[in-house]
Every structure is written in C-alpha cells, then in structure tokens.
Automatic annotation (TrEMBL):
Stated family: Belongs to the histone deacetylase family.
Occurrences of domain Histone deacetylase (ranges): 22-317
Pathway: Ketone degradation; acetoin degradation
Protein name, per record: Acetoin utilization protein AcuC
Length: 390
C-alpha cells in the first residue's frame, strides 16, 4: 500500500449539518471512510486530522462582513432580512448552530491537504469534506457556505506561487470557483456538468471563457440531460487531456461531486459507476504527467449517499493508492453494519448492473450534441495548435 497519500478525516465533518431532511448529508464521508477501513485499504498512518481555517485564510476569498454574518447567524443572532442578503436562512442553505466553525473546518481540511502535498510530505491528498464549489465572495449558495477550493487555490498562489488547474466533475457547474478566478491567467478552471437549462445554478455555458487576462483559461462542457457513460467519458477525457497540455499546471485540484449517477435524486444524468472508475484514473495520470504527481482531490455533491457516494469516493482513494483493480463484491461486513440505517438496499457489488435503467430514447442525439459542445469548448486550443503547426 502506498504511503505517500493522505486521507483527511474527522468525525466533526458531521457538524456541517443543515437539518435531518436536507439533501446535503456528510454521513456520506463517514460511510466512505468506513468502507475503506473495512476493506483494510486505509490505515492509521495515512489518516490526517484537519485543522480549522483561520479568519485570515477565509479572507483570501471571502468578505469580512460575510464571515462575521456567518458567525452571528450560527449564534442565532442574525436578523432574517440581513441573513437573506448573505444567502443564509434559505431553503438551500438554512442556518444551523456553530455554522462558522463547521464550515471553517471543511476549508481547513482542504488546506491541510494542500500543505501536505506542497511541503513534499505526500504526493496525493484526499479531502472528502471539501468541494463546496458554489460559495461566493460574500454569499452562501447551493448548500455551500465557504468555498474551500477557492480558498485553497488562493492559498496555493500566495504561499507557494504555483499555477493551478481546477477540474470539477460535479453535475452542477462549479460557478463559485470559476467566477473567483475568472480574470486570473494562473488558474485554469474546467467544469463538466449537466447543462444549466434545467439544473442549478444555470451557468457554465460553453462561451464562459474568462475575462481580461484570464480570458481563455475557463472551460465549460455542459452535457445534455440523460447523458450516459460513453458520451460523458469521451467529453471528459478529450477535454482534460487537451486542457492540461495547453495549461501545463504545477498542481491539479479535482472536485469530485458524485451526482452525475443515474440514482442521484437532484440531477438528470444517466451515468453509472463506470465514470467514477475513470475520473480519478485520468486525474492521477495527468498529475504525474504535468505536476510531478501533485494532486489534491476534494468531495462535492452527491445525494444518493447510500448507493452511490461511498463507492464513487472510495474509488478515488483506491486509485490514489494504486489499489484500483478492485471488483466483485462490497464487503458484507460494511453492508451488514449500515443496511439497517439505509432506506434503500445497499449495493452488493462495486459495479452497477448493465440494466440499471431503461434505454435512453434520444441517445444518438444526446451523444452528437455533447460532441459538438466539446468541439466548441476546445476550439481555441485546437485552432491555436493548428496555427502553430502551419
């Protein structure tokens, strides 16, 4: 088992909890952790406790007034009309006790991953508590209070002076991270997501390419609803390879939302566990090809916390530690432990059955449309390459 990978974990991740019926449920991190421990795929020497991000670290991307509002809200002292101005107390992002501390811990977990990798203590780091990519400079959005990835990227720039490639495979557009670095040529953002036509946040169009000096460093591939594995993977693989070759990053940060799966209750894609095998595999390859292995992976969305997220996120760690040839059955011990808590039958195998869902009637049309979207997204890279070859 490789020892140059770390897994950031704390039971305190569970304190980031809006209410019992909210779709965002950090129990999925514990389920993943327990699955890996049950398999003996994660040992004590690889588990690192996160620290809490300081206010100064949060100030790297968030407004002071906003952070104070989050603290006050978590103490139950923020008037409703002020809270709503900051995106707090909404249906998506309800107020809960000590929300600042719980949110700052998730940011700190990603910063812990950064420091381990960039100080040379680890090649790869996995921080599944993070991935809250919708948070804005002065406003909560889409279940996200603080934007840990954006803080981490700014932290990398300020402390280590490196160029960052941010890759977001969540079914929802990585809007918060994109907009924070939209004019920065030293941060390249790539988000592949379900089109915003029917899905929050409604952004992430192919023509969102950056602005000012950052123009040409923002890439979006909005895939059609009901996109299946083959089309999704074709788009992801082409884009990631060409963007990495174009940008030549010093470090790769991947956001690994697990909500493109057919079972996810909030999205409309038709992917299976096949894509969750390939997503970290390519990230791993690109990190070694361009970044001397420097790769940080965070969590993100994923709302079927029982059947999808533990398998998908476990596969990231298994890829990092070169144990990814896993197949066959999920450990029965893990199933027996958690089935009594699950409202649905837990999966018994790593891979999904071939007949997971009925045939998609518009498959050819969807595939063709996605291929055209990839061509549009990558056109600037490809046209420049052609000019250089002339």
């Amino acid at each position: 088992m490789k020892k140059d990978c770390i897994f950031i974990y704390s039971d305190d991740f569970q304190k980031y909890k809006f209410h019992d019926h909210h779709p965002f449920n950090q129990l999925r991190v514990k389920l993943t952790y327990d699955l890996l421990r049950t398999m003996n795929a994660l040992d004590d020497s690889q588990i690192i406790s996160p620290r809490i991000a300081t206010d100064d670290e949060l100030f790297l991307v968030h407004d002071r007034a906003y952070i104070e509002a989050v603290k006050t809200a978590g103490e139950g002292r923020l008037p409703e009309e002020i809270a709503l101005n900051y995106g707090l107390g909404t249906e998506d992002t309800p107020i809960f006790p000590n929300m600042h501390e719980a949110s700052a811990l998730l940011v700190g977990s990603t910063l812990t991953a950064v420091d381990y990798v960039l100080s040379g203590k680890a090649k790869h780091a996995l921080s599944l508590g993070g991935g809250l990519h919708h948070g804005f400079r002065g406003k909560a959005s889409g279940f996200c209070i603080y934007n840990d990835s954006a803080v981490a990227i700014k932290y990398i720039q300020e402390k280590y002076n490196l160029r960052v490639l941010y890759v977001d495979t969540d079914a929802h557009h990585g809007d918060g991270v994109q907009w924070m670095f939209y004019d920065d040529p030293n941060v390249c953002t790539f988000s592949i997501h379900e089109t915003g036509r029917y899905l929050f946040p409604g952004t992430g169009n192919v023509n969102e390419r950056g602005q000012g000096k950052g123009y040409g460093f923002s890439f979006n591939i909005p895939v059609d609803a009901f996109t299946e594995d083959e089309s999704w993977l074709d788009a992801y693989t082409q884009a990631f390879r060409e963007i990495a070759d174009f940008f030549r990053p010093d470090i790769i940060l991947t956001q690994n939302g697990a909500d493109s799966h057919y079972y996810d209750p909030l999205t409309h894609l038709s992917a299976t566990m096949k894509i969750y095998r390939e997503i970290p595999k390519l990230a791993h390859e690109m990190a070694h090809q361009y970044c001397e292995g420097r790769w940080i992976a965070v969590g993100g969305g994923g709302y079927d916390i029982w059947r999808v997220v533990p398998r998908a996120w476990a596969l990231i760690w298994l890829e990092m530690t070169e144990q990814s040839n896993i197949s066959g059955n999920i450990p029965q011990e893990w199933i027996d432990k958690w089935q009594k808590h699950s409202p649905v039958p837990l999966p018994t195998e790593w891979d999904d059955p071939e007949d997971l869902y009925p045939p998609i009637p518009r498959k050819a049309e969807i595939t063709e449309k996605n291929a055209q979207t990839v061509m549009k997204a990558l056109y600037p890279i490809r046209s420049n390459r052609q000019k250089m070859n002339l």
